[in-house]
Amino acid sequence: ECASESSLLRAMSVVSMLADLRMDCDALLAGALKDASVSDDDIELNVGIDALQLLRENASVSRVVELTASMKDEAAAEAVAIRHLVLTSAADWRAVALELVDAVVRWRFYYSAPDAGEQPQARRFAERLLSLHAPLANQLGMWSLQSELEELAFECLHPSECAHLRMLVGERLEECAVLLEDTKRAVEVALRRSKEARSLVSSVRIKGRIKGLYSIFKKMQRSRKSFNEIYDMVALRIVLSPRVASSLGERDPEALERESCYHAMKVIHSVWKQFGDGQREKDFIANPKSNGYQSLHTTVLVGDDIPLEMQVRTTKMHRIAEFGRAAHWMYKECSYEQGAVVDEDEEEKVLPRDEFSFEGIDAVTLDEPSLGGGRVGGASPSGSCDAFSSSPAASSSGSPLESHFTENVESHVEYVMAANQALRKNHVVILSGGKLHYVKTGSTLLDFAMHRLKLGDDDLDRLTVNGERVPPSHELNMSDIVGLKRAGSGARAAAAAAAVSMSSSVPSSVSSFL
């Protein structure tokens, strides 16, 4: 009775969180039935095939999460590789979102006690929230869920630091929220009053954010700074839509993009004093980052001399920064690069750390002479989750990624799922020795062992797939985990183990296997 009541409360909590994220009906039904003892036939008959399919997809995600969590330390896969394996384990992004919400609910039910940080199991789960669940929420553009996952883990792993930061941020929270809104409106007015800005830019979207507790903590640790030295605690992102070049005569579109940003920044500096005599001003348009990121950054003083960071970029630059790298790892593999693996060095490229969300943010046109300004768009697509800027259904055609990909997709969800879908056409993704491997659909365990791991016939009986022994003819499936059981001591076992951990370098002679 007690166990049944607890299960019901958990299911209700999952459904409540999914509803808060404005997930659709099938997601809510799947959340209610995630841990229920109900047969597939009953679910299909009484609930529907769509909810059942989502539950099956979520089961695949849960399998990967559980298998990788139980791996021993010496064979633990790299964090980035595991994230990508989870994303490829489901064709439907909602299955991943359901797993993330379930992780929050499990934490609340089992590890929310004040002394949770003293429990080894709770600390391991908290570390898992930071290394896997929160980054996955980021990858899907679910900023609020990411923030909640991070702060739950932060409070467990660093309780005193979390409490101290919560107090410091709480003292400024209301003031910062008012400053952001006032400054946002002031930027809109300043741009609209500028004749040159109106001639270059047709509309602008502006979004503010207050840095999360865990993000502040990480920055303090990384840069060895105090709380009062974190000058981007509040920030505005200003995204410009330049006018079509043809309406401005013979103008280079790229030059027009740059000119729009530089002039907007000029307007900003004419209104607000720069913080630190401009030492924090950065030009990533003239000097793009290695991953293609372009934007102008500055920090100005607003209100009672409070530092506020402003980032200026065009819509095209924003798409590349937000989405172009969001699916970078799968896009790379869809190009069939040989022997490529994903590691921590790719973190900046594949995991855009962003706390801004433009959901429901209307574009303000600069054409209106009225200071109230006209607003363009703003309606959420019907049938889509309002937590995202567009419906994943738009990417369901299955077409491979193309060069104009960033112009056709509006949300992180679409990018990840479209790249996933393109990848699934011809490849499966498996994990072995902490590395991701992309192999052709239909490849067997024997193919993988011979061509990738370079193992001999005598070693085949030590291979496992998802923790179980299978015959060499077993066909590998998406998100399988291939392991190698130790064969005791000796040089042969050491060499075999080394073959797994070094399997990322694939000789060109076996490239046909890819």
UniProtKB/TrEMBL annotation:
Instruction: Report the record's Gene Ontology biological process terms.
Output: guanosine tetraphosphate metabolic process
Q: Where is this region: Disordered?
A: 368-405
CDD domains for the chain: NT_Rel-Spo_like (cd05399)
**Which Gene3D superfamilies does the annotation name?**
Beta Polymerase, domain 2, Hypothetical protein af1432
Q: Which residues cross the membrane?
A: none
Low complexity composition bias: residue spans: 378-400
> What InterPro entries does the entry give?
NT_sf, RelA_SpoT
| Ranges of residues in domain RelA/SpoT | 208-335
Superkingdom to which the source organism belongs: Eukaryota
Question: What is this protein's record name?
Answer: RelA/SpoT domain-containing protein
